[in-house]
Amino acid sequence: MSENPATPETAAAAADVTAAHAPVTAAPPARPLGATAASAAVPRRGAPMFPDGTGPAADPAGSHHERRIRSFQPRRSRVTASQAEALRRLWPTWGMDIDGLSRLDLDAFFGGLPVVLEIGFGMGEATAQMAAADPGTGILGCDVHTPGQGNLLRLAERNGLSNIRVANGDAIILLREMLAPGSLAGLRVYFPDPWPKKRHHKRRLIQPEFVALAATRLAPGALVHCATDWEPYAEQMLEVLAAEPALENLHSGYAPRPEFRPLTRFEGQGLDKGHTVHDLLFRRRG
């Protein structure tokens, strides 16, 4: 089960947000954001969600990077008032768009903390729990789901977590164009979209090319941790990770679930359906 509850078939391919249900024949009276209903935080179809540039961009890399098969579809969906408020207030400090135009200074962004990259954090509950349990490690969460980005920032502020930053856009561009070799202390990919149909397997994130690229951005000893409840994808993950010469498996096959990875509600739903969750723990060779 993916951390993101929407499936590729139901996800909107466009970056436009869902239109508000209120009639648009007349403009509604101005109200403070915190006093609006959840749907009132969503602009009308076609209108930019953050016209003043205080939130994540719809397509941060634009067209200056090559076209290729992607493992995700950008989805803004319905953003609640609290999520939108968190994005507007916190994005300029704790957020970044993956535009691929400059190198990211992780030391400056995280105040010198070692940084783990988490790709696909869903609504951010597990990310916030791990950040709280390990305040000495920075977590750079990469996702394209606007509600989840806002929710993670909201959780970080509410719980006083200064070791979380949010990256918006394509993780491959982030790794290839914006992160220096050997700059990451770890990589986490939890419950990525399994793309279960055979014709969609090429869209899966964990492929040899991706793993080879990610390995170059990991410092010696950095931990790669993947988890999935989709058995065929787990088998592919194990095969691909084991074939990467820069990585070594910390177990003979799959790993027991580490205590530092929280049990999320989506994972719990998968377990209730009889799914088996597989963890994989690999380490960057020195």
Automatic annotation (TrEMBL):
Biased composition of type Basic residues is found at 65-77
Enzyme Commission number, as recorded: 2.1.1.33
Q: What is the recorded function of this protein according to its Swiss-Prot or TrEMBL entry? A: Catalyzes the formation of N(7)-methylguanine at position 46 (m7G46) in tRNA.
- Compositionally biased intervals (Low complexity): 1-28
Q: What is the lineage of its organism?
A: Bacteria, Bacillati, Actinomycetota, Actinomycetes, Kitasatosporales
Organism name: Streptomyces lunalinharesii
What PANTHER family does this protein's entry cite? 3-DEOXY-D-MANNO-OCTULOSONIC-ACID TRANSFERASE/TRNA GUANINE-N 7 - -METHYLTRANSFERASE, PENTACOTRIPEPTIDE-REPEAT REGION OF PRORP DOMAIN-CONTAINING PROTEIN
Q: Where does S-adenosyl-L-methionine bind?
A: E118, D143, D170, D193
Query: PROSITE patterns this protein is in?
Result: SAM_MT_TRMB (PS51625)
> Pathway, according to UniProt?
tRNA modification; N(7)-methylguanine-tRNA biosynthesis
What is the reaction catalyzed? guanosine(46) in tRNA + S-adenosyl-L-methionine = N(7)-methylguanosine(46) in tRNA + S-adenosyl-L-homocysteine
Binding site residues for substrate: K197, D229, T264, R265, F266, E267
Cite the InterPro entries for this sequence: SAM-dependent_MTases_sf, tRNA_(Gua-N-7)_MeTrfase_Trmb, tRNA_methyltr_TrmB_bact
Question: What is the similarity comment for this entry?
Answer: Belongs to the class I-like SAM-binding methyltransferase superfamily. TrmB family.
Report which superkingdom the organism of origin falls in: Bacteria
Query: What gene codes for this chain?
Result: trmB
Q: Which UniProt keywords apply?
A: Methyltransferase, S-adenosyl-L-methionine, Transferase, tRNA processing
Question: Is Lipoprotein one of the keywords UniProt gives this record?
Answer: no
Q: What is this protein called?
A: tRNA (guanine-N(7)-)-methyltransferase
Span list, region Disordered: 1-77
